[in-house]
């Protein structure tokens, strides 16, 4: 009887300790991590900073918010793919080589996480492919290793949502053709085919016109190439994509210098 009574007391103590640990209720993930904001709130704040992404300090702050969102809610798909997107912009625009390499590496990891969370959606595949492309652009060995995976991911985007991000998956596929011309079986003609398909889906994407002009240039269609560049410049810029428009215009100047 004495042992039975002791067991009963111990059981009561265990229950009391469990109640103290949970505060009388189940902890939310935010409470467990000490995060004062929800993942949704953190992502919204990060989105506002992304609008100022040309200031890389703002972009860095946005990345920190998205990392906090991932800690607060590890299975948040939006936080995962946006981490890949933010990292891509950082890697593509920083002059710090170490940060560049780290950003693309982190973007690849985030893109793969997004695909695992929601494999039926296009975001993870696109931003994974974009970061693989960014990584490849700085290293010949990475380029050769990543090429097949870039194409695989962009074709998956087209399968799921062809007009995603202004039909940019076609643009990336065209870039792989242009950048491997004469080296690894790339073809300017095939690049033009991809971009002509993209133009049917979206007529407001500066990069479609830019790379279609480049494709025409390399297939001895210089008059058509010039028309594409003129069309791009005459197109009103989208307020949401001003940094990308400026990038396209700078590349257009370099292409025109070859005419």
> Secondary-structure element sequence?
HHHHHHHHHHHHH
Mean pLDDT: 87
Low-confidence stretches: 1-30
Q: Report the sheet with the most strands, covering strand number, pairing sense and barrel closure.
A: none
Textual characterization of the structure:
- The chain has helices at residues 2-22, 29-33, 39-50, 56-72, 77-93, 97-117, 123-137, 140-160, 164-179, 188-201, 206-218, 222-234, 242-256.
- With 259 residues, the chain is mainly alpha-helical.
Structural topology:
Blueprint: H1 2-22, H2 29-33, H3 39-50, H4 56-72, H5 77-93, H6 97-117, H7 123-137, H8 140-160, H9 164-179, H10 188-201, H11 206-218, H12 222-234, H13 242-256
Helix pairs in contact: 3-4, 4-5, 5-6, 5-7, 6-7, 7-8, 8-9, 9-10, 9-11, 10-11, 11-12, 11-13
Short description:
This protein is mostly helical and 259 residues long. The protein is built from 13 helices and no strands.
Q: Which properties best describe this structure?
A:
259 residues; mainly alpha; 13 helices; disordered N terminus
């Amino acid at each position: 009887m004495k042992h039975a009574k002791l067991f009963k007391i111990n059981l009561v103590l265990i229950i009391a300790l469990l109640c103290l640990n949970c505060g009388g209720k189940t902890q939310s993930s935010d409470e467990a991590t000490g995060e004062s904001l929800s993942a949704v709130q953190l992502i919204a704040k990060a989105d506002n900073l992304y609008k100022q992404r040309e200031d890389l300090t703002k972009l860095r702050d946005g990345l920190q918010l998205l990392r906090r969102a991932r800690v607060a809610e590890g299975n948040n798909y939006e936080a995962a793919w946006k981490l890949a997107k933010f990292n891509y912009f950082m890697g593509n625009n920083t002059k710090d080589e170490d940060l560049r390499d780290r950003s693309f590496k982190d973007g690849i990891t985030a893109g793969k996480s997004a695909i695992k969370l929601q494999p039926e959606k296009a975001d993870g595949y696109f931003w994974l492919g974009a970061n693989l492309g960014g990584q490849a652009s700085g290293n010949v060995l990475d380029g050769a290793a990543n090429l097949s995976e870039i194409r695989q991911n962009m074709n998956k985007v087209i399968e799921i949502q062809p007009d995603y991000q202004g039909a940019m998956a076609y643009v990336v596929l065209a870039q792989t053709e242009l950048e491997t011309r004469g080296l690894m079986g790339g073809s300017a003609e095939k690049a033009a085919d991809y971009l002509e398909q993209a133009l049917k889906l979206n007529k407001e994407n500066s990069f479609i016109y830019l790379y279609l002009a480049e494709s025409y240039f390399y297939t001895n269609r210089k008059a058509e190439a010039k028309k594409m560049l003129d069309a791009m410049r005459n197109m009103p810029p989208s307020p949401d994509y001003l940094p990308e428009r400026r990038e396209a215009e700078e590349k257009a100047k370099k292409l025109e210098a070859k005419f």
